[in-house]
């Protein structure tokens, strides 16, 4: 479950220290664009030390590395992989070949460090026009890939258009990513909403992302965590309905009925599938698996 994915700039020790206490399902230690080129080495050391000396029992840990056309990405992986983060996020991903290059290098470092091979997963950040067009190629490039992540700011810069709060300019990229991810049986995660003060705008943007099929959303501020968590959690009435669906199915079986109805509507396989998804979320959020 990755409802919220909180970015923490790798060069800010106070943010790294408190990262897992802020309610996000996932934290992303950033070595890329939140860190200026002359701070790359310092950020890498800080993130490595955070992974080495702190534990993060309450959330998943992702490390965002620098793009493969820079001098930094191999150094990033060499320093980080031995500390076994859950996930590596390669950036400006433009095709499956780039994912295989990163996956091969992760394997090399895992072997050198004696880390279980394949333990570290990959969450590609797609944020260019070419990357969006190659979304399926990227999603299916390697078994380590666990999802696709959309970067709306760099994407719109590459598209030569303005990034707006309404988000019309990223609609195609959003739906393309969700479809490519789901076609590979994995999830898509939405770009952050970058106005830290606008909670109404954040909620609207998050509701819209959820309605398109995204499973979660990046956030840049702890102030955004509660709203995004709430939007990506099932509501009380959704949970109640899901329980009713499962009870109706069981009752139908007992009575030997092939077709059943609930609240005047036919219950068929997709409705049962959705009910199971809601109950899995309920278990993960309220059943002890989640804070
Ligand atoms: C936005 C702002 C400067 C606002 O600062 P402010 O100081 O006004 O915030 P306040 O709310 O006043 O802070 C109150 C307290 O919370 C603490 N606090 C704040 N943020 C925290 C946080 N993230 N984690 C933990 N703690 C935090 C703070 O330290 C303070 O603690 P304390 O002093 O103890 O009271 C700050 O949030 C921040 O730096 N965010 C992260 C930015 C970042 O990572 N960007 C890169 C990743 S996105 C990206 O790259 C997108 C993309 O890749 C994809 C695409 O394409 O879309 C692209 O290409 O663009
Ligand atoms: Mg970016």
UniProtKB/TrEMBL annotation:
GO terms for molecular function: lyase activity; magnesium ion binding. SUPFAM superfamilies: Phosphoenolpyruvate/pyruvate domain. Keywords: Lyase, Magnesium, Metal-binding. It comes from Blautia argi. Pfam families: HpcH_HpaI. Substrate binds at residues 64, 127. This is CoA ester lyase. GO terms for biological process: oxaloacetate metabolic process. Signal peptide: none annotated. Residues 3-222 form the HpcH/HpaI aldolase/citrate lyase domain. Its cofactor is Mg(2+). Mg(2+) binds at residues 127, 154.
């Amino acid at each position: 479950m990755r409802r919220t994915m909180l970015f923490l700039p790798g060069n800010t020790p106070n943010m790294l220290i408190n990262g897992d206490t802020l309610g996000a399902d996932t934290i992303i230690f950033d070595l890329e664009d939140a860190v200026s080129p002359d701070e790359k080495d310092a950020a890498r050391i800080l993130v490595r030390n955070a992974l080495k000396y702190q534990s993060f029992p309450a959330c998943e840990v992702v490390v965002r590395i620098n793009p493969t056309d820079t001098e930094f990405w191999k150094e990033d992986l060499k320093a980080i992989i031995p500390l076994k983060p859950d996930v590596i996020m390669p950036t400006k991903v433009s095709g499956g070949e780039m994912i295989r290059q990163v996956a091969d290098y992760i394997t090399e470092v895992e072997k050198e460090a004696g880390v279980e091979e394949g333990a570290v997963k990959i969450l590609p950040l797609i944020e260019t026009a070419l990357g969006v067009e190659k979304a399926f190629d990227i999603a299916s490039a390697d078994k380590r890939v666990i999802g696709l992540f959309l970067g709306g700011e760099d994407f719109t810069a590459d598209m030569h258009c303005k990034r707006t709060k309404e988000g019309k300019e990223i609609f195609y990229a959003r739906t393309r990513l969700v479809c490519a991810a789901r076609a590979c049986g994995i999830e898509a995660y939405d770009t952050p909403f970058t106005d830290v003060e606008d909670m109404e705008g954040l909620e609207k943007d998050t509701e819209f992302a959820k309605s398109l099929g995204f499973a979660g959303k990046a956030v840049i501020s702890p102030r955004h965590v509660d709203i995004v968590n709430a939007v990506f959690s099932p509501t009380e009435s959704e949970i109640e309905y899901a329980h009713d669906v499962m009870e109706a199915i069981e009752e139908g079986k007992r009575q030997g009925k092939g077709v059943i109805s609930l609240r005047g509507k036919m219950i068929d396989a997709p409705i049962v599938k959705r009910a199971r998804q809601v109950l899995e979320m309920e278990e993960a959020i309220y059943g002890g698996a989640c804070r």
